[in-house]
Inverse folding.
């Protein structure tokens, strides 16, 4: 699975973001994981709604438009549904509390990490 480093103009957002860009990887998402490590994330590409069923930890959901600009941010608890946010095309899932400072209008930058 490809991984990316995500930044914004004022600094880093997450260093290891996996890309979920097909039905199976989006469906699996973070289900059944014990936790999401600090500085890790998951980008659900072409996905505008999420759930946290079968998860045991909360996440920050960053809803992005097609230009990777933040549309909305919310914390979603286990066994809950995320909100509906008009304009959202992708969702970045991060450890709860790590989306501090990401507000609507923030543009995120993506760089593929080199594999070793």
């Amino acid at each position: 699975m490809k991984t990316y480093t995500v930044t914004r103009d004022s600094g880093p957002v997450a260093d290891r973001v996996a890309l979920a860009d097909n039905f199976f990887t989006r469906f699996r998402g973070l289900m059944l994981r014990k936790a999401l490590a600090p500085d890790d994330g998951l980008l659900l590409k072409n996905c505008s709604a999420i759930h946290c069923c079968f998860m045991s930890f909360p996440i920050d959901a960053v809803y992005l438009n097609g230009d990777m600009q933040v549309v909305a941010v919310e914390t979603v608890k286990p066994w809950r549904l995320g909100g509906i946010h008009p304009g959202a095309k992708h969702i970045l899932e991060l450890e709860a509390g790590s989306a501090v400072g990401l507000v609507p209008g923030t543009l995120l930058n993506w760089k593929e990490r080199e594999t070793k």
In short: The two ends are 13 Å apart (CA to CA).
